[in-house]
Amino acid sequence: MKFFIKYFSLCLGILISFNSYSWNALGHMVVANIAYEHLRPDVRLKVDKIVSDLSKEYPYITQFNQIGPWPDSLRAQRIEIFTHWHYIDLPLSADGTPIKTLQDTDNVVWAINHIKPIVKNNKANPYERARFLAFLVHLVGDIHQPLHTVGRISSNHPDGDKGGNLYIIRFPRGSVNSMPLHKLWDSGFGVFSDDTSKASVDLLTNKISAEYPEQYFALKSSDFISENWAKEGMDLALSFVYTTPENETPSDNYIERGQQISEQRIALAGYRLANLLNQLLSSSSDEVLDDQTTQNLTF
Fold this sequence. Notes:
By secondary structure, the chain is mainly alpha-helical. It has helices spanning 2-20, 22-37, 41-55, 70-76, 108-120, 126-143, 181-186, 198-211, 226-239, 252-280, 291-296; strands at residues 90-93, 150-153, 168-170, 178-180.
C-alpha cells in the first residue's frame, strides 16, 4: 500500500506538472538554492546585487533561486532564439546506425563557455550581466540532466531521438498513456513535481543536500569544464538512461534508480555552480570582457 501511494503520487505529479511547467522550475530553483548556500559571503553580496538589477525588469524575481527558471519563461513567450543553448546532442549510436552530425554550434557547452566571462565582467551593463547570470544558473542545471547531453541514433531514429524526446515510453503503469523519456527525466521521476513555494524549495534543498553533501562527489564539484559535464551525461545515458525499452513501461527499479540519479545530478550541479561563481565573482577576478565576446553574445 505504501508503494502504491508513492507511485500514484509520482504519476499524478508528473502528469500535472506537464501542464503547469512547475516541475522544471522547482528543479532549477533547487540547483540555485544549493549553490547560494555555498557561496562565499562577498560573492553572495554580488549576486544579490545582480539579482536586484534583474528584478527591476522582472519584479517577481526577488531572490537568487528565482532566476533559475527565468530562461524557460522566455521560451514560454515564444522567444526561441536561445533554445539551442539548453542542450547538446552528443551522438550515440545504439545499433550501429551511422552517426550523422547532430550538434548545433550554439549548444549548452558553447553557451556556458561564452557566458562565464560576461558574468565575470564587473564593467558589463548591469542588466545584461543579470540576464546572463540567470542563463548561467539555468544552463548549469540543464547540462546535468543526462538527456540534455545526448542524441541517440538508431534504425528507428536515424537522425537522432532529440535527447529522448522521440523515445516514447508507456507511463503511468497500467495505462495506454505514453510520453517521451525526456519528460520523465526532466521531472526527476516526480522529484521536481511539487510547487515552487519557498517551503517546497527549502524542503527539497535540505533533503538532497543531506543525502548528497558536497564531499559525496569528492573533487568532481570543483570541475569547471563544461565539456566534462556533458560527457558525464552521455556516460549516464549509455550506462543507464536508455536501459528502459522503448514503447514499454519502466520498471520499479528503473524509477527508483532514476530518482536517485536525478537528485545526485541536481546536487552536483548546485555545488559546481557555487564553486564556479565563487571563482568568477571573487574580488580578485574582475576583468573587462574582450570586444569579440561582447559582440557575440548580446540581447
